[in-house]
């Protein structure tokens, strides 16, 4: 099977970079387009006027977005240097990670998702949830899960 467009959600975790490596190899062998997405965590101040919140919160949100953009720029540069030339990056805000990934999937019409899974079990999974499991359950395209 050949994949034309691969969606790769990333965060700052080592497992998302391991998933990115798998996506790179698939993209090279299939000459695929790659979209790398970073979903910023749901802001607890969502719905509050951004400029009316405490300056420290505003600075935190702006720093998180700046860091995400820098990470995406580095990823794109690295993929290009390794021969994956059709790379798009995207930041999604104000939704949960799984929702941001699935919304991006619908927007870009990818035919594969490659993502990492932290492999949480038991109470940690119950409390923190599993983004990978939610994406896997809701996705209409194949999902390659790279485990820690």
From TrEMBL:
<comment type="similarity">
    <text>Belongs to the universal stress protein A family.</text>
</comment>
<dbReference type="InterPro" id="IPR006015">
    <property type="entry name" value="Universal_stress_UspA"/>
</dbReference>
<feature type="domain" description="UspA">
    <location>
        <begin position="3"/>
        <end position="147"/>
    </location>
</feature>
<dbReference type="InterPro" id="IPR006016">
    <property type="entry name" value="UspA"/>
</dbReference>
<dbReference type="GO" id="GO:0005737">
    <property type="term" value="C:cytoplasm"/>
</dbReference>
<dbReference type="Pfam" id="PF00582">
    <property type="entry name" value="Usp"/>
</dbReference>
<keyword id="KW-0963">Cytoplasm</keyword>
<protein>
    <recommendedName>
        <fullName>Universal stress protein</fullName>
    </recommendedName>
</protein>
<dbReference type="InterPro" id="IPR014729">
    <property type="entry name" value="Rossmann-like_a/b/a_fold"/>
</dbReference>
